[in-house]
Amino acid sequence: MLFSSTTFLFLFLPIVCALYLLVRRELKDYVLLLASIFFYAWGEPRYVAVMLLTIIINYVGAILISKYKYKKILLLLTILGDLSFLFYFKYFNFFVENINELFGGHIDFIKVIMPIGISFYTFQAISYVVDVYREEVEPQKNIYKLALYITLFPQLVAGPIVKYHDVADQIEHRTVDFEKVTYGVKRFIVGLAKKVLIANTLGAVADKVFTQPIDQLDCVTTWLGAICYTLQIYYDFSGYSDMAIGLGSIFGFKFLENFNYPFISKSISEYWRRWHISLGAFFRDYLFLPLSRALALSKTYGKLVKVLGRKKANIILTFFVLAIVWFAIGFWHGATWIFMIFGLYNGFFIFIETVTGWNKNKKSLITTIAQHIYTILVFMLGLVLFRSETLSYACDYALTMFGFKCGTPMYHLIYYVDRIEIIVLIVGILCSMPLFNRMIDDTGKSQWRIGFVNLWLMALLVLSAASIAASTYNPFIYFRF
Fold this sequence. Notes:
This protein has 481 residues and is mainly α. Helices cover 72% and strands 0% of the residues. Helix 3 (48-67) runs parallel beside helix 5 and helix 8 (178-210) packs antiparallel against helix 9.
């Protein structure tokens, strides 16, 4: 069930909100839990058992970790249990296909269909048991509350990845008031408009471009496709994150931000601190930092320091850790070589920036502008790779963008984009910058400005609802992750 579907907007959400706001405090968690399970079962009824089994494994694992002395072994077994589901459902096909291709084998197998949202709720489960192991939180004695954390429908299938220690207190104690509900409604409408009015519109343009053979595209058309796809994936995912944060606020939760205007970044490192923040924070807290500490204490690192000196040893350590982390980030996005290359591509630029001390010194205005251009170009080319089916297509597409390889266009530019889509493209570019970042914040605003914003949000809601009713094009890119 998509947030941007008529079923969700006009049936599921009103009923759940009404029940949640009307029942007694002690029943609110059960309303949310049942609604979340129903929400997931609507699209994936066969895989509800997998999610419930994940809950049981982590519930038992966390309690055992808190009680017995073999904590590391118990933690490892629990995480392996979580990752075994993720491996089977997300990566089994990939490994069997590659084994067949590598050894010329013909292993017959039933292709596994990946459950929606398994990457997100698996990481949340891992976050919980690691937080318990680190004694940052107490193990949840009430399995229904742990189930609520893992299954909570606002962020169940598409994030943001909510770490347990960030919401542990909110699960136990939270309030619902008029201010939170109104903010949540406004934030949800903004996210819905991002998804339906901008992402869907620009996604249709990007699809037209990327489905053409590369020898039938020219320089201008490839740039159009790359820009539209970059904005599509941004508004698609940030819109869903806005809707999730808004829904969380309606139900009394405060989720951390997942996007922070990434297109104003001056480096790829900064970009990833602003783009899909919850994913970056997860890999930082649960892979990058622990792996860096472990390797820094290893005998191998000590030998490198003696032979090469600490500075060069740190460079090697940084390269090795970033390679592992960004390979994992790419692999998290999908079980294809393209996604792994995408991860390593970003990791390479982050390594270069880390080693050279990028952005540490004050620079001139011209240098700052050049850094912005560099960042956008590097990330946009990365998304061309992300969108492409093969590496050769991505390389040919990039060469065409810069005029090194131009085909013979089959269609004029007007085939790909009309006047409405040009307007949406301009709006998308403008709204990707922090020009309207305090639009729904009522603090310090006069009544007429609040009224204007509310009227504007109502107009966005009507336009979004009309677009949903009139269109059958309503994809969501991150469902496949």
